């Protein structure tokens, strides 16, 4: 009798657990119904969030102004032979260009022709940019100066391809800001 009672209780316990965990055939559990309703709400919220993000995403010119800032600072850090600072500005320049490409891998010329910015950058990223990086790593002011100028020419070739010939780049004559010391000596 005791043995039958134990078998019965074990069967009831197992059956109760299965019945509790597995819904009746053809029925959607209440939790899944709520999730489906939430997904509809989330889709609307997602669309709203995407529209908001599109409205506050910086323009290409804003991102390129950041590139200009970092690339100008790179010049002054290199001229002062502050190689760690130069490497910082090199990386910032490259990362901001990559940010632009993540946002807009192509652009249109004023005539409406599509320009593959990613392709142009890929060319620079395997030629001028590594040469500039190596000049910083080698701490060679002569190589730095020539590869910096070479990179300016590469940037201008992109501007020309995009139909923006008026964006002619030159060696900066004054630092873009005065709060950073370009001197390699820290105090």
Structural class: mainly alpha
Q: State which percent range the strand residues make up.
A: under 5%
Largest sheet: 2 strands, antiparallel
What's the rounded overall pLDDT mean? Answer: 87
Q: Which fold name corresponds to the CATH topology of one domain?
A: Four Helix Bundle (Hemerythrin (Met), subunit A)
How much is the radius of gyration in Å?
30 Å
What is the number of E strands?
Answer: 2
The CATH architecture assignment of one domain turns out to be: Up-down Bundle
Helix content: 55-70%
Topology:
Elements: H1 2-21, H2 30-56, H3 60-79, H4 83-103, E1 106-108, E2 114-116, H5 117-125, H6 128-137, H7 141-161
Antiparallel strand pairs: 1-2
Report on this structure:
The structure is a single chain. This protein is mainly α and 187 residues long. The chain has a domain at 60-161: Four Helix Bundle (Hemerythrin (Met), subunit A). Helices cover 68% and strands 3% of the residues. The chain is built from 7 helices and 2 strands. It has helices spanning 2-21, 30-56, 60-79, 83-103, 117-125, 128-137, 141-161, and strands at residues 106-108, 114-116. A two-stranded antiparallel sheet has the order 1-2. A hairpin with a 5-residue loop joins strand 1 (106-108) and strand 2 (114-116). Helix 3 (60-79) runs antiparallel to helix 4 (83-103). It is extended. 15% of the residues are buried. The mean pLDDT is 87.
